[in-house]
Amino acid sequence: MLSLGPATKVYLAAGVTDLRAGFERLSVLVQAVLEQNALSGHLFVFCNATRTRIKILYWDGTGLWLLTKRLERGRYAWPAAAAEAAASAPRRLTLPHRELLLLLSGIDLSKTQRRDWWRRE
């Protein structure tokens, strides 16, 4: 079972990722694209070209988890990478836990409005 603390961050790789990749290749992508350490204990989220499948890489202290979700209908609302969109588009995004849950539930985060509340970082 996954237990995520408040210090656990969610890093999303914008754009397309070849999800035939396993633990090793996704770990390399975490370092190359997201500029993070795959063994940091944070969540690293990737999506395929058709936006029907998501993989999450997570280190729990004893080993790597590779979680996969495949949609039977519909597509995820996924941000495009710099090469696919404007040159200023980010290659990675950081999301709060609740926004990851919304994304996995099929909510388009670009069409939602976040209220500015004070929160301790």
Question: Summary?
Answer:
Helix content is 15%, strand content 22%. The chain has two helices and five strands.
Report on this structure.
With 121 residues, this protein is α+β, with helices and mostly antiparallel strands. The chain has helices spanning 23-32, 97-104; strands spanning 10-13, 43-47, 53-59, 64-70, 92-95. It has a 5-stranded mixed beta sheet. Strand 2 and strand 3 form a beta hairpin. The radius of gyration is 14 Å and the shape is globular. The model is unreliable at 84-89 (pLDDT under 50).
Task: Give the strand order of the largest sheet, numbering strands 1, 2, ... along the chain.
Answer: 4-3-2-1-5
- Class of secondary structure makeup: alpha+beta
- Molecular shape: globular
Proportion in helices:
10-25%
Please count the helical segments. Answer: 2
Give the SSE string: EHEEEEH
Number of distinct beta strands: 5
Question: Could you tell me the mean pLDDT?
Answer: 84
Distance from first to last alpha carbon: 26 Å
Instruction: Characterize the biggest β-sheet.
Output: 5 strands, mixed
Low-confidence stretches: 84-89
Task: List the topology elements.
Blueprint: E1 10-13, H1 23-32, E2 43-47, E3 53-59, E4 64-70, E5 92-95, H2 97-104
Parallel strand pairs: 1-2
Antiparallel strand pairs: 1-5, 2-3, 3-4
